[in-house]
Amino acid sequence: MNNVNVINNAGKDINVTVNKNDDKIEIVIDLTNKDFKLPNNLKAGDVFKDNDGEEYILLHFLPNRDAAVLKKGSLKSMKFGSDNNYNGCNIDKYLCEEYLSELERKFGKNNIVEHEVDLLSLDGEDDYGKITRKVSILTLDEYRHNKKAIKNYINEWLWLCTPDSTPNGCSFGGVRCVNSRGYVYYVWYDDCGAVRPRFVLSSSIFES
To answer: Do 136 and 199 contact (CB within 8 A), yes or no?
Structure first.
């Protein structure tokens, strides 16, 4: 197959994406929502919509007024990965590659702010370290700290990214999750659970 060179002369606010699937080439042209705005009177637990009608829960504001946000409904159900390390697992790759471009289209590329994801295990092992992402899923600590804001919107079991232990501990298999009643327990990494994206919106997205 010959190479295809796509030149975007429509301006920086137009996203042009080329997807190759077997012998087919798909060219997607999206207008970024750089002017998307939210009311500045939102508070923890409030639900808001993007321009496509998708719903999100505002978890809390950071000291600089950036906002931590969780998708109200799940994206899909999928296996965690080949072990319990979130860094590079199936969910991490899906969110950072396919789903992130969708978020940037909805809210504007510069409005999705990087955040730190602490992969400290339940038993205190830290060999998975900390990673930086623009979109992830909740850690166990984030779930605990934000449970009041999201407890009324849990209706299926969903993944957390906190491992039970690590190879330096006693296991690389168990991953923390939340069941449909809001209880925290664990499942094995090759089970299937719901993915609920967590990300941070820039303070600039709120109306002054």
So the answer is: yes
Give the pair of three-digit tokens for residue 31: 């207008």
| Neighbour tally for 205: CB within 10 Å | 21
Tokens of 15: 């996203």
pLDDT tens for 77-106 read 999 999 999 999 999 999 999 999 999 999
CB 150 within 8 A of CB 57: yes
Q: Quote the CA–CA distance of 2 and 181 in Å, as a whole number.
A: 53
**Length of the chain in terms of residues written:** 208
Query: H or E segment at 187?
Result: strand 184-188
Q: 57 Cβ partners below 8 Å, 6+ apart? A: 45, 46, 47, 69, 70, 71, 72, 149, 150, 153
pTM over 0.85: no
CB 135 within 8 Å of CB 149: no
